[in-house]
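Predicting structure from sequence has reshaped protein science. With that in mind, we have picked out one protein's residues alongside their backbone shape tokens:
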Amino acid sequence: MSSVIAATRFSVLDRSRTRAGRPHAEALRDTVRLAQELEALGYHRFWVSEHHGVPGVAGSAPTVLAAAVAAATRTIRVGTGGVMLPNHQPLVVAEQFGVLESLFPGRIDMGLGRSVGFTDGVRRALGRDKGDAEDFAAQLRELLDWFAGTSPTGVHARPAEGLTVPPFVLAMGEGAAIAARAGLPMVIGDLRNRERMLRGIDRYRAEFRPSAWAAEPYVVISGTIAVAGTPEQARRLLVPEAWSMAYSRTHGTFPPLEPAERVEARTMTAKERDLYASGLTGHIAGTEEQVAHELETVLKETGAQEVLVTTSTYDRAALLDSYRRLARIVTGRRP
């Protein structure tokens, strides 16, 4: 086993992806069950995401879902990847995480992003617009002030004030600089664009300012990792998500995942076919030996302390098998 891999934490972000013909409730239950399974495999964190009005994603209320996950597990850290801060008042976010940390002390993470709704209609329903993302740095400062008890309003966030809930910044675009100036750990993707990812990491480390939250830079790289018995089986794990992404970019809506065989039998337009083919490339996918080699390369390039795996596929059993195989790579033994 590689010493670089052995020294790295491995965690999972599950987006509660819906599957064609199955209800949203099943996707949420699958997320909770997956957290239990990954806890048994030794993963470090399990995070959930925030999406609104998306047919292919059931996870619209991450702090609610995180509470269900934390209640169903015992040791794995639980958090969000992330709460989209421009969609919420920082006080409310502080209160929600304060409740989570009070109920599950020492196990809660606060991953924070700066995206707003997927479409104009969703943004209107949330009472937000694209410009709200520009205030992320100020919203982040306000949120951290609520935990520190330094809000200038004279109001106190109960029960958040005085609690330590580790914050992470999802570094999309300017997120790397914001994370660095705030002195916070950074989560950066994606593995498909290594050059851009490395630029973001370099900027983050160069501009990092130590804080009460982190004395030195902490980098989490995120992306899809698919491990199977053969390269072709690993590639097929990527098929449902690749098609869902291609469809969203040509139809403006993100659909539920479909079985790989159904996707491969589709007649696609030229644009769909190009986007689909692109969606199959650039990920870390293959046999255990191939994935171990690629992971070692990426970790040496980035110097990351942690990997956040974001794999989605239709076949839940195959997904769990992929995570088992990845755990075997990380631990050097059969879990």
